[in-house]
Design a protein that fits this description.
299 residues, alpha+beta, Rossmann fold, Tumour Suppressor Smad4, 2 domains, 10-stranded antiparallel β-sheet, 8 helices, 14 strands, 27% helix, ATP binding, Diacylglycerol kinase family enzyme
């Protein structure tokens, strides 16, 4: 077997070299031909395509966070080469969703051993920008922007910007067109969801399934003290989601419009400000290496 490890060296502020040393030793011990590709932020997609064509891996590992997985999903979409996750990002949202082992070396062992491959959906915005986990406009996008511009990484940095933005949160009007209906609403955050939980463990969407061919649009109408307290307990009880503060609709494509430009983030990357954007799902775009622990596999 040939294994290609695609590594984001800066994701999560985690030094990947100790893991890569252990990964090489593991692969060498079992006769698995392996190669490492490190992203640089410059022409990564084209450089990766060259490696894929020359090395011809049987499996690819995304070593990083949601952004690393998204990068690979875009390059590998509609390819027969399957990808698995080694969680080494800031929050590892999709890895958490899919019940991937939190220990990178254990996740690698699962990736190598598993013969279970599922179809993972991919969201595309304005036929240009992609999302594999969660995207949003409103308070969280502003938090992500602050986080993205900070040289520090990790949950403590994210918390710093969360507290800062919480004091400035204001509702904004929006229109959602989908399923041959039009919804006019106002809220502090609008999420486009291919899954259920943020990497923090807080569920935003109880209906999400990244392998079902549809996505959810979730409107958060307000954020107050009791909601935050309940969100903090959400790892133990997902029933904190209150219909009085949230509206959700399921679809496979939608158009979202705002009265004033709103900041959009997708999988932890700030895309820019938009007055409107279109969203659609690409069903089964990516072949995902997974295990029976994955709660979204068809039984």
């Amino acid at each position: 077997m040939k294994l290609l490890l695609v590594v984001n060296p800066v994701s999560g502020g985690v030094d990947k070299d100790p893991f890569l040393k252990d990964a090489k030793a593991l692969c060498d011990n079992y006769g698995i031909e392996n190669q490492v590709f490190k992203t640089t932020g410059t022409d990564d997609a084209e450089a990766l395509k060259v490696i894929l064509n020359t090395f011809k891996p049987d499996k690819v590992a995304a070593v990083g966070g949601d952004g690393t997985l998204l990068f690979l999903a875009i390059v590998l979409q509609h390819s027969s080469i399957p990808v698995g996750i080694i969680p080494m990002g800031s929050a590892n949202g999709m890895a958490t969703e899919l019940e991937v082992s939190k220990q990178p070396i254990e996740a690698l062992k699962e990736l190598i051993m598993s013969e279970i491959v599922g179809d993972l959906d991919l969201l595309v915005v304005n036929n240009e920008h992609y999302c594999i986990h969660l995207g949003d406009v409103g308070i969280n996008a502003k938090i992500v922007k602050g986080y993205e511009n900070d040289h520090k990484r990790g949950m403590s940095t994210y918390a710093k910007y969360f507290i800062d933005e919480l004091g400035k949160v204001t509702a904004f009007p929006m229109t959602v067109e989908c399923n041959e209906k039009t919804y006019d609403a106002e809220g502090v955050m609008l999420c486009i969801c291919n899954a259920r939980k943020y990497g923090t463990g807080i569920p935003i969407n109880l209906e999400g399934n990244p392998m079902d061919g549809v996505f959810e649009i979730v409107l958060i109408k307000e954020i107050n003290g009791s909601m935050l307290i309940n969100a903090g307990l959400s790892s133990f009880n997902e029933n904190f989601i209150n219909s009085q503060h949230q509206t959700s609709v399921q679809t496979n494509q939608a158009k979202i419009t705002f009265k004033t430009p709103q900041l959009l983030q997708l999988d932890g990357e700030v895309i820019g400000e938009f007055l409107s954007f279109d969203v659609r799902i690409i069903k089964g775009a990516v072949k995902l290496i997974t295990t029976q622990k994955n709660p979204y596999l068809e039984r």
